[in-house]
Amino acid sequence: MVWNTQSINSSESMPVGGGDIGLNLWVENGNVYLYLSKSGTFDENNTLLKLGRVKLKLSPNPFQGKTFRQELILKDGYAQISGENGKLNTKISVWADVFNPVIHLDIKSSQNITTEASYESWRFEDRITKGKENNQNSYKWAPKGIVKTFEDEIAFKNNTVQFFHQNKPETVFDITVKQQGLDDRKTELFNPLKNLIFGGKIQGDNLIQARNYEGVYLSTPFKAWVLKSKKPSNATSITITLNTGTETSAKQWEQSLNVINNKNSQKASIKWWNDYWKRSFIYINSKDESANQSAKNYQLFRYMLGCNAFGKYPTKFNGGLFTFDPQLTDTALNYTPDFRNWGGGTHTAQNQRLVYWPMLKSGDFEMMKAQFDFYLNLLKNAEIRTESAWGHKGAGFTEQLENFGLPNPAEYGWKRPADFNKGMEYNAWLEYEWDTVLEFCMMILETGRYNGNHIEKYLPLIESSLTFFKEHYTYLAKQRGAKALDADGHLVLYPGSGAETYKMAYNSTSTIAALKTVLERLLEQPNLSEKQKTEWSAMLKIIPSISFRVFDGHTTIAPAKLWERINNTESPQLYPVYPWGIYGMGKPGLDTAINTFKYDTDVLKFRSYVGWKQDNIFAARLGLTEDAAKLTTAKLKDSGRRFPAFWGPGFDWVPDHNWGGSGMIGLQEMLMQVDGKKIYLFPAWPKDWDVHFKLHAPYQTTVEGQLKNGKLVDLQVLPASRKADIKIMIE
User: Fold this and answer.
1) Is the peptide bond before 192 cis (omega within 30 degrees of 0)?
2) Mean pLDDT over residues 124-148, rounded?
3) How distant is the alpha carbon of residue 321 from its chain centre?
4) What is the C-alpha to C-alpha distance for residues 493 and 469, in angstroms, rounded to an integer?
């Protein structure tokens, strides 16, 4: 990725990162800029705050000459900026240490220059957030009183600039707990915002405290703290060390900041990135330029995911670590760089899942841990909420879920009827939508199958999530009448929800497919006790069957047995195809699933490649090569921004990570599908797309192959015994 001209503003930035750090890097008017982001920096209001902006100003300035180059060296996971101005030639390497929370800026010049490194902050004072700006936090459109983003502590300290944000004692956690009638259980609840402090320090060899200045970037005022070269030099190394912790005092946080190793060489980080790229890849060489672009952007997006490999929190669907000034996405939003639509500490499960599903076939299992632990950490809170609201067991996870396991307070609703059930969200979009957690349960089970991961610690999460459905729908049936089950001895899943689309649903297909598949896979776990096997086998028997409907004489999968209204534009009638794999290659009923894709009038009306839409994945899973290629290349085409994988906003924000994730999944499924031990190669792959790929399959299997001129010219399968399970689908 090479740019030979400077950027106009932060929307033309380049993502750089590693470990759990994301940087937006750009050069504007001869100055180098960096936005700093790190996993888990949630303030009192649950905004995911940036850690400030750094500006480098060099004098004399190499970036005011005729030659300029900014390159993302993908293989080694870092960026390099170079410029020539007359006889002055300067290179700056920018990299994040994968194993320590440290950013390195290494400046090398052909002659002595003076470096100014400024720390620029828009959080130099308290800021009241009004109107749509509260979409960045958990209050959204329904703030309770005045909402403030509180100022950071920023100061010069021994020739460094030190900066941090320390959460106040009361946070949105306290407000939400009270709103949802859980004050009596508050001391038992996990609270990730309590005592949270995050920030860092910037320092450099030969840099000393210089001055302060003020300014405005786009429409956001800021103050700056400047470090400057003690004397001109031809080499300067600057480090920005970041630290996030739950500390009882700022002093403790500072002590832990000061022991972080910022002297590491780049060698270990480069090795990590080299191994990352060897683990999995898709390279396309075709006359169809849109196919080549898809593979290139697949790699660029996977790079962005790799920048949060070791985050405490999962990569957020609405921008990950790489958001920039919001007015460059929507001119009406003149807010600070902290803004992103759909919140910071609020995790929308339908969107998050698309960021994490592709990591199975790319073999990025270590990166899935943050998403699994997110749910595991919230398990107790979800169980307490269920017990408090309904008096039964199981973990009820809502769709718009806070990082402390309760429903988002705005979506829960402040203006609720007095007698409305306290476990329910008073919300037309989200009511009764509880089944998305089962996709994460399935991902966990899949990492066991794919990689041999020991998943025992997650079994309580899977079991409690299943228990919720059995207990809750038995509870609701007993409230309505004398029988807990229907005439066939099945649960009555009413009211339910077919994704966010088919509301007040009776026996939603997406819920049935999820429960059936997760139960079947759970029963395959080797270490279940006889009691567990009996319990889960009994639950599997009471899951109702999927319903069907007919269009123009064609039988199709119905989204539910019945529903009252349509609220959104998803197609959960195809969830039995993906992610649940009940219908697919070599399985009975494939024609019914294809009919659903081709003839269901809702599916046709909702079809799109934008954002979280999954039509490209459905087409691939159904072996519809032409549709899969058309939809996947549309999804993975260049974003229209300078960095090609900064898609969005779609339905969410920029960069739209569920847009990228669903694009990745589509390309993978076109190349390779798995069913138990069977591996199907090229099930929806155009013959004229030459490709070299390496993907992961269940049972610790890797498949690497090359297709040229419609023929498979090379195939390497490890372990070799798995070669017998491969079926080549291209003729």
Assistant:
1) no
2) 96
3) 9
4) 8
- pLDDT above 80 for 124: yes
State the pLDDT at residue 730: 86
**Cβ 484 vs Cβ 542: under 8 Å:** no
User: Phi then psi for 376, rounded to 5 degrees?
Assistant: -60, -40
Residue 75 binned pLDDT confidence (cut-offs 50, 70, 90)? very high
Strand blocks (E) in 623-721 = 672-675, 678-681, 689-697, 701-708, 711-718
Please tell me whether the peptide bond between 655 and the residue prior to it is cis, using omega within 30 degrees of 0.
Answer: yes
For residue 529, give the 3-state DSSP assignment: coil
Helix (H) or strand (E) holding 297: helix 289-306
How many CA atoms does the CB half-sphere of 64 hold within 13 Å? 8
Residue 520: CB atoms within 10 A of its CB come to 15
- Residue 681 CA to residue 728 CA, distance in Å, equals 5
How far is the C-alpha of 592 from the C-alpha of 256, rounded, in Å?
59
Q: How far apart are the first and last CA of the chain?
A: 35
Alpha-carbon gap, residue 398 to 709, rounded angstroms: 48
Give tens-digit pLDDT for 437-461: 999 999 999 999 999 999 999 999 9
Q: What distance in Å separates the CA atoms of residue 389 and residue 184, rounded to the nearest whole number? A: 12
Report the alpha-carbon distance of residue 129 to residue 512 in Å, rounded: 42
Coil, helix or strand at residue 603:
helix
* Enclosing H/E stretch for 238: strand 233-246
Q: Is the model's pTM score more than 0.90? A: yes
Name residues whose C-beta falls within 8 Å of residue 662's C-beta, 6 or more positions apart in sequence: 354, 612, 613, 614, 616, 617, 635
42 forms beta bridges with 48
What pLDDT was estimated at residue 32? Answer: 98
Q: Quickly tell me which residue has 């069907």 as its tokens.
A: 548
Tell whether the model's pLDDT for residue 705 goes beyond 90. yes
As a whole number of angstroms, the distance between CA 708 and CA 52 comes to 48
Angle at 592 between CA 589 and CA 597, to 5 degrees: 130
User: What is the pLDDT at residue 25?
Assistant: 98
Non-local CB neighbours of 534 within 8 Å, separated by 6+ positions: none
Token output for 146: 């005045």
- CA neighbor of 91 nearest in space, from 73, 110, 66, 74: 110
What's the token pair of residue 425? 């969200």
* Average pLDDT over every residue of 648-671: 98
Pairing of strands 153-157, 2-3: unpaired
CA atoms within 13 A of residue 578's CA, in its CB half-sphere: 28
Closest CA to 573 of 553, 544, 612, 601: 601
Give strand pairing partners of 717: 703
